[in-house]
Amino acid sequence: MNSSEFRWHYVIYKIVNVLTGQYYIGQHRTTNPNDSYMGSGAKLKQDYARYKNAGKNIRECFRKEILFDFDTFEEMNRKEIELIDDKVLADPKSYNRCRGGSFQFTYPKGCIIIEHDGRKGSLREWSEWIGLSPDIIRTRFRKGMSMAEIIALPPRERDKIWFNGKGEGHTLNEWCNMTGLDYARVSARLRAGWTLDEALSKEKFCGNKYLYRGKTYTTPELEKMTGIPAETLLARMNIRGWSVEKAVETPLMPNPTSIWEQKFEWNGGSYTIEELAGMSGGKVFKWTIHDRIKSGWDIDRIMTIPSEAVDTSWKKKRYDYHGKQLTVDEGAKIAGITPGGLK
Question: Phi/psi of residue 132, each to 5°?
Fold first, then answer.
């Protein structure tokens, strides 16, 4: 994400208590006017705590309005001075206890400041601008990368910062931990073209309706009708470019059956590997049958050559290894690989 897409918004906001009509006017510097910031007034925060302790949802009890959006701090500050006057301070419904215009932004002591391409900001601010977590930016700096290289290198999906409709940003793994949703399902929904808010919804997102055989259906309705997950249907249509008919009518690929569960034709019957080993009377071990099938042997040949008939002299033979005479099993143990790998 290019940092030039971001700019500072100097906003005047108003927080309204929808239950009592009380209000708070303040100023805020942000890259997203609709972020989750809900004011910093002392009396306002007291009410936040009181409502939260009573089990109420703060977002349902308080509403934020953006009154003005300026390009500079000076414009924002002048407007706050104008709005928060003695009349507002005397209003019993006002949370404000100080006149406007007292805000001055400074970076806290010890904050990491990065300057690049004419822009200056903290590590957290750059994280929001370029869509990478602060930890990833730090790691790339430690690897000797410049800021230009850090911005140019696209993030992996797990490192990317995903922003919801309210401007809150987290990695996908953090979002999944917060919502209790499965990472693979959320990731599949995003690849299928869902927005982050839709992908994080615990309910099936209906989204668009699709015309199929003269009727319109949502993806959950198609899922219920076909048994194909909604994420699979959306991926087929949005990513693979399949038609609705092909996406709906193409069955899911069956899960591959384990070789141990498969049946093999021999002497007019169908048998599993375990059953074939039992029918050999102990002459052909089940693992021998398994390995021979994997090597492409036909069943008649597998069942007619006993396990002992296969040359295993290589197992007993000793080989020179750094002045020591070792068997294949002993060498494999030292090397940390299977005997077959050494053979």
Answer: -120, 145
If 0-12 CB within 10 Å is exposed, 13-18 middle and 19+ buried, where does residue 125 land?
buried
113 forms bridges with which residues in the sheet? 122
Q: Average model confidence (pLDDT) for the chain?
A: 79
Please check whether residue 172 is in contact with residue 157, taking contact to mean a CB–CB distance below 8 angstroms: yes
| Side chain identity, residue 23 | Y
3-class SS string, 206-272: CCCCEEECCEEECHHHHHHHHCCCHHHHHHHHHCCCCCHHHHHHCCCCCCCCCCCCCCEEECCEEEC
Distance CA(331)–CA(322), nearest Å, equals 11
Q: Chain-centre distance of CA 186, in angstroms?
A: 7
- Domain segments of the chain as ranges: 3-90, 113-163, 183-249, 264-310
Question: Of 101, 102, 127, 105, whose CA–CA distance to 114 is shortest?
Answer: 127
Per-residue b or e along 150-168, where b marks 16 or more CB atoms closer than 10 Å to that residue's CB: bbeeebeeebbbbeeeeee
With CA atoms as reference, report the closest residue to 122 among 112, 108, 109: 112
| Token code pair at residue 318 | 């000793």
* pLDDT reading at 310 higher than 60: no
Does the global pTM surpass 0.85? no
The DSSP line for 82-105 is HHS-HHHHH-TTB---S-S-----
| Fold classified for 3-90 | GIY-YIG endonuclease (3.40.1440)
| Residue in 240, 242, 241, 219 with CA at minimum distance from that of residue 230 | 219
Nearest-angstrom CA–CA distance, 57 and 216: 37
- What pLDDT, in 10s, does the model give residues 28-82? 878 788 887 888 788 888 888 888 888 888 888 899 999 999 888 778 888 888 8
